[in-house]
Amino acid sequence: GLGLRIDFRNDPIASTSGFLFETGYSFSNKDINGPAEYVTPKTETNINLQRITIGFGAFYEIFSRNVLALSVNGKELNGPFFEQSDLWRFGGTRTVRGYREEQFLASRIAWSNLEYRLMMTQRSYAFLFLDAGYYFLDADLERGILQQEDYIFGYGLGITLETAIGLLGVSFALAEGETFSEGKIHFGIVNEF
């Protein structure tokens, strides 16, 4: 695989200005050898897969201690067919908040996160957010998989605190159409946005 990373952020963990661009491409080959009862004469046993990723993050301090953070990301998986372990996991803390962690499996995903951050210290902040995402999985009728495609949205608020083990992030998020009682609480150690 190949990757490119361009990082002009003033702080890689709690940025208040700058931008980050990342992209990557990888190629893999796998052989399917069994179990014998699942390998038929029609089964492809030598599979080539390609993965393409792209991500962009921008940070702008609109006035003292008030920061807008925007990220846009996408991932694509190409190949003749996919096993469950090949697919991208989507939803939750690192992609679209308001959904269960890795709730969706897909061959194509894209998402964007917009945050308004109020900096309390150099690396601790409270934030409001709006996340939007898209996922797609093509139908594979031979394996009984129907096409899946949807646009999803999540919104909420949270806090990120600098602790001895790193930045601890906690957020309360609602998915589109959910009531307050259906909201999700996301926890995570934040090392980069």
Core attributes:
11 strands, nine-stranded antiparallel sheet, two-stranded antiparallel ribbon, 193 residues, 60% strand, elongated, mainly beta
Characterize the largest beta sheet: strand count, sense, and whether it forms a barrel.
Answer: 9 strands, antiparallel
Taking all residues together, what is the mean pLDDT?
92
**Strand order in the sheet with the most strands:** 1-2-3-4-7-8-9-10-11
The fraction of residues in strands falls at over 45%
The portion of residues assigned to helices is under 10%
The gross shape turns out to be: elongated
The Cα radius of gyration reads 19 Å
SSE sequence, one letter per element? EEEEEEEEEEE
DSSP summary, beta strand count: 11
Number of helices: 0
Q: What is the CA–CA distance across the termini? A: 23 Å
Oligomer: single chain
Q: How would you classify the helix and strand content by structural class?
A: mainly beta
Spans of at least 5 consecutive residues whose pLDDT stays below 50 are none
Provide a short characterization of the protein structure.
With 193 residues, this protein is mainly beta. The protein has strands at residues 2-7, 18-31, 46-63, 66-78, 88-90, 104-106, 108-119, 125-137, 148-163, 166-175, 184-190. The protein has no helices and eleven strands.
Question: How would you sum up this structure, described in words?
Answer:
- With 193 residues, the protein is mainly beta.
- The chain is built from no helices and eleven strands.
- It has a nine-stranded antiparallel sheet with strand order 1-2-3-4-7-8-9-10-11, with no helix packed on it. A two-stranded antiparallel ribbon has the order 5-6.
- Strand 7 and strand 8 form a beta hairpin.
- The radius of gyration is 19 Å and the shape is elongated.
- The model has no long low-confidence stretch (mean pLDDT 92).
